[in-house]
């Protein structure tokens, strides 16, 4: 959808009170986003259809967003139409990677993550998805082969690695995961943190969110240790560390392949080639470290 079509649709919504002003809101990797201000307040309008190649289904995103609001984690959904969601605007600072990596901020993030994992299922309504990273990688592999991707020659190696990592992770606890813990999905309003953007939400192992939190925000070894100690209340064994690092590698491989698929399918103005290269570098570094552990 182009900007003018989106703005026309925004103006036609029946929910506004008085005149409205709009502004584009950057940062979305699967959505087109705007802020809208009317006489009643300020809102975010998100445009986005299902993206089957990424296992992204908007019915699930909406249910997760509503459950997250009910659990006190996320702003309220105020209006929904086909391909469009309006949510309350939060006047807050969007975190960046150095913010997330700060031990004081991690001490605020981890309780929020615990609430996501354990409180959202109490409020979730309707059918729910499971996000199993090893399935996602296998599905991405098929999509990349079907699309004659430039990365096809490497796919067998990625599948071999995936089998080894899945075996290393072993049996898991099931919680409700956010599954996309980029820094920009945390908001700090000065009093509390908010967690937003539930595109990939679903039941999962907590190790995936922890691995994603570390890898997406460039945590170093000491910062990872703080994160894990906080989440597991100091009960971090060598076995748990090995399983965690395997899941973190899988998280990085999935992010790399997400970008590879986006190179084939996305119309958004994002340099996916560069993003693929960046994440493959992170993945190879993490996997080399994992193999030496």
TrEMBL record:
Key words of the record: Kinase, Transferase
Pfam families (alphabetical): Choline_kinase
Record bears the keyword Protein biosynthesis: no
GO BP term (any one): phosphatidylethanolamine biosynthetic process
GO molecular function ontology, one term from the record: ethanolamine kinase activity
InterPro entries documented for this protein: Kinase-like_dom_sf
CDD domains assigned to the protein according to its UniProt record, in alphabetical order: ChoK-like (cd05151)
GO cellular component, as recorded: cytoplasm
Descriptive protein name: Choline kinase
Species name: Profundibacter amoris
